[in-house]
Each structure stands twice: as C-alpha cells, then as structure tokens.
Design a protein that fits this description.
Elements: E1 21-27, E2 31-38, E3 44-51, E4 62-63, H1 65-83, E5 90-97, E6 103-105, E7 115-116, H2 124-134, H3 136-143, H4 152-162, H5 164-169, E8 172-174, H6 176-185, E9 189-190, H7 192-195, E10 201-202, E11 207-208, H8 210-216, E12 225-226, E13 233-236, H9 239-245, E14 252-254, E15 257-258, H10 259-266, E16 279-282, E17 286-289, E18 302-305, E19 311-317, H11 321-331, E20 345-347, E21 364-366, H12 374-390, H13 393-399, H14 407-410, E22 414-417, H15 424-434, E23 438-440, H16 446-460, H17 464-470, E24 478-480, H18 487-505
Parallel strand pairs: 1-5, 5-14, 5-15, 9-12, 16-22, 22-23
Antiparallel strand pairs: 1-2, 2-3, 4-7, 6-8, 10-11, 13-14, 16-17, 17-19, 18-19, 20-21, 23-24
C-alpha cells in the first residue's frame, strides 16, 4: 500500500529515526544531479551527481535515455551517502529535466532510438515550414511560441521525414522528464510547464491542441496526461524502480517539470512568490525568464507555462558556457583568463543559434588588430554570449506586461544562476553589459532544489513556490550594485550581429 501523503518523522533505516527527506532530481544535458533535502526545513543534506554522454555530428545532439536512468540511480545513491541518511527516510521524489528533448517509445515501452535533445538543430527547415504554413501569430495565439529548431514538434517533423520506420513503430512520445517520471511510477504524466515547450500544448486552453496534433500526425493517446501542476502527486514509486534506486516502494512521485520551470520554483518565483522579476541562467544554454500572471505571446520569446499555474516567458540561447569554454580551450586559456574584448567581436554560435533564430549560424570573429591578445579574444567570447542572452531581456519584460524602460522596472535586480554564476568573468560581463544590479542566490543547484520543492508538494499538498521561498536552504543572496553600462561594446556586438544575421538568413 502507498504511504500516507505525509510520512511520519520517525522514518527508519540503518541509523534509526530520521526526519522526512525529499529528493529533487535535475536530469540535465550533461549530468544528473540529486539533492537530498530535509522536507520541513529545506536544509540540503547531501548531493549526488553522475555524468551523461551527448553524441552527434554537425547539428545533431542525442543521448541514450537508458543512460539517464542509470545516472539517476548512481546520483540517488551518492546523495543518500553524502547525506548519511537512511533510504527509509525518503518520502517523495520529483524529476526536473532538460526541456524539448524527444523520447520515442515502441509498443514495449522502450526507446526506439536515442533521444533527440533541445540543442539539435537539424529540424530548422521543418520549423520554418511549420511557421510559414500558418504564420507566427497563429502559433503565438495557441502555444505562446513560434516554432524554432529544437522545439519538440519540429523534431517530430524531422523524424517523420528522415526516419519513417521509427515513426511507424512509435506508440508513445515523451519529454526527458516525462520518461523518467514514468519509469519511477509507471504513469504517463507531465506538467503544464514542460508540456508548453513541445509546440503541441496550448497555453491558451491548458491542454493539447487538437488542430496542431492533426497537423503533426500525432495521436493524442501517444502523449502523457497533463497534471495540474508539477507538484501534483501522479503516482507512487513502483517496486521495480524502488529496487533499482535503493528507495522505499510507494513513496510519492510528483509530476515534475522542465529544468527552467524548476529553477523558477527553487528561486521562489511564481504565484505564491516573486512575480515579474527577471532571472538569467548561465549554463550549457543561456536563458532569461520570469514568472508572471500575464499569458505571454511575443515572437522573440517562448511563452511557456510555469510549474505552479502561472506563466514563465523565456528567451533561450544555444551557446553559453560550453561554447565559451570551447573558445578558451582553443586559445589554451583558463576560464578566468579573460579581459574585455576591445575592438574584437566574437559571436560563439558554435551550435547555430536559437535566439535570435539563426540555426545555420557559426562562430564568427571580427575586429582583430595587431595588439589583440588571446585574453581579449576570450573576453570577446564572453561578451558575445552574454550580449545574446541579455538581448532578449527587454522583450521578456514586455511579455510580462511591464515597460522595460520604466525606471522602477529597470531597477529590479537581475538574478544570475547556473554554473556561470560561479565564474567571476561571467558575472562581471553580465554587470557591465546590463548595467543592472545583480543578485547571486546562495542556494546551489536551483533546478534540483526546485524539484525537491515539487516533491514536498506531492508529499504534503503544499504550494511548491511557497515551500521553496520558506526553506532555509535559500540562504542569504549576495547583491552586487549596478555599474555603468558598457554601451560601446554593446553597440559594436549589435552591429556585427545585424550584418551577420542577414548573411546567415540569406
């Protein structure tokens, strides 16, 4: 029998009684991270991590979903060992996963091929064709987003054209977090947040769009049910999954959500927390987002739903920390060796680009002088990556129903998170190019922390945003005052991007 929604504080294991613990999972592009969190206080007790492998040639990015499951098991074991708590203390688990990826399952419930990831750009022609067929306003009215390469709908169209045998054998379509949640509890479920990144979910109606499904030749039965929120309890840990993960069978499994939605929860952004406050995430991708009650429909922004019932408009770039690290490696420099780029402009679009929509873009370097140093070239790569994600900020704020030029809006601090938030050059480049005050949240692994809050919600019925906002794990944030905005660098990069965009689009 499944346990009650709130397990007793005296959960037992090898060390005796222990307060209830929830597990938050971040299944990202490169690795799985798991936080073991005290359910009542929010204290992070332990952390586990296991790597993933991404494969693919030009434009292609794929991963084996089986590797995600094995990494989850390893990371859960590592988190519990790090926390030194018994497995019996765990009362709930929730998964937050990389958005947009497509897992195609056959009749036996197993993946028919590797998952196609969010940063795979092979579907760019299909995205253009979908947009052209009905026009951008049609898509915005329904989904809140215009199709671009990496949106799940465009990947499915690519598979239909290039792998008809896979499509013919398909019996279910899942996002990465959906797939892992189903392996945990045996229930095909998703949430509005992650579903809103597929291109076939309507933020206007709160469900799958029948006309789009018909356009894409997708049977509704192929898709998971959409739970009301990411914190909804959709099932219980099955005996098989419990054995594989070393956890008690029957614990609560939340619907979970996408990684950006979970980060928003971890920051306390949502209906029961902060609204219309921007966040910049520096990871493999660069993102800027905010929780809002205004349904977004802006062509340069993804009009996503949030995990808690509000909305999460988001701008996403493909090239961020990984691309800049590659430039550093090519130059033989360490990450922190950079200085401002001077006359040099480097657009590190090594994987094409999503925002702006330039899937055929490549890395571009211009403005070299005899005096240009390797350190300046690396600094120019930072500037190109930061410029690209900040460029979406004004449109994001407009999508929230605010005026980005209103002094009260411009004075709102920019919360900077992700791996790049721990890098001095990343943070200083953001400050210099934005001219905004910057807040560096103290809580580590915000995606996994947000997932833990979703697990707490599934276990207790509490609102996950309110849970995260109240947890002591959020700690004290570090606030940095604004510096004078470097408009000379901004204008130089903007001019180069404008000229290059005309070439790439041509």
């Amino acid at each position: 029998m499944p346990p009650s929604r709130s397990a007793p504080a005296g959960a037992t294991g090898g060390r005796g009684p222990h307060a209830p613990v929830v597990l938050g999972v971040d299944s990202s592009t490169q690795s799985t991270k798991v936080l073991a969190v005290d359910r009542d206080s929010g204290t992070v007790l332990g952390t586990g991590r296991a790597p993933h492998t991404v494969t693919g040639g030009p434009g292609a990015r794929e991963s084996d979903p089986g590797q995600w499951w094995r990494a989850l098991g390893a990371a859960v074991a590592a988190a519990l060992a790090d926390a030194d708590v018994p497995a019996g203390a765990v009362t709930a688990i929730a998964v937050a996963g990389q958005q947009h990826g497509l897992v195609v399952l056959g009749a036996d419930g197993r993946p028919l091929r590797p998952a196609v990831l969010w940063n795979d750009t092979r579907s760019a022609p299909k995205a253009a064709a979908l947009t052209e067929r009905h026009g951008a306003p049609w898509w915005l009215e329904r989904t809140g987003s215009v199709p671009v390469a990496s949106i799940t709908a465009t990947t499915w169209q690519w598979l239909r054209a290039h792998e008809p045998h896979t499509v013919e054998a398909a019996r279910a379509l899942r996002l990465p977090h959906d797939h892992l949640t189903e392996r945990l509890c045996g229930v095909a479920a998703t949430d509005p947040g992650d579903a809103s990144g597929t291109g076939w979910y309507s933020t206007a109606t709160g469900g799958y769009d029948p006309e789009i499904l018909q356009l894409l030749h997708i049977e509704k039965e192929f898709l998971p049910e959409v739970a009301p929120t990411g914190a909804t309890r959709v099932g219980s840990l099955t005996p098989g999954a419990a054995t594989a993960l070393g956890l008690p069978a029957g614990i609560a499994v939340a619907a979970g959500t996408g990684d950006n939605m979970a980060a928003a929860v971890g920051l306390g952004l949502g209906g029961e927390g902060l609204l219309d406050h921007p966040v910049l995430s520096l990871g493999t991708s660069g993102t800027v987002f905010a929780a809002t009650r205004t349904r977004p429909a802006s062509p340069g922004i993804n009009g996503f739903a949030a995990a808690d019932g509000s909305y999460l408009p988001l701008g996403c770039t493909l090239n961020c920390t990984l691309a800049v690290d590659r430039i550093a490696a090519l130059l033989g420099l360490e990450r922190e060796d950079a200085v401002p780029g001077g006359d040099a402009v480097l657009l590190p679009y090594l994987d094409g680009e999503r925002t702006p929509d330039l899937p055929h873009a490549t890395g571009l370097l211009t403005g070299l002088r005899h005096a240009t140093t390797p350190q300046q070239l690396l600094g120019a790569a930072y500037e190109g990556a930061v410029f690209t994600v900040l460029r979406a900020l004004d449109e994001l704020l407009t999508a929230c129903g605010t005026d980005p030029h209103d002094p009260s809006v411009a004075a709102r601090p920019l919360r900077v998170i992700g791996g790049g938030a721990r890098g001095r050059v990343w943070v200083e480049t953001v400050r210099r190019l934005s001219g905004r005050p910057v807040v560096l949240p103290a809580a580590p692994e915000l995606v996994a922390l947000g997932a833990a809050a979703l697990a707490c919600g599934a276990d207790t019925g509490a609102d996950p945003v309110a849970v995260a906002a109240g947890w002591a794990a959020s700690g004290e944030s570090r606030e940095l005052p604004p510096v004078e905005r470097d408009m000379a660098t901004w204008d130089r990069v903007e001019e180069v991007l404008g000229q290059a965009s005309r070439t790439w689009r041509g």
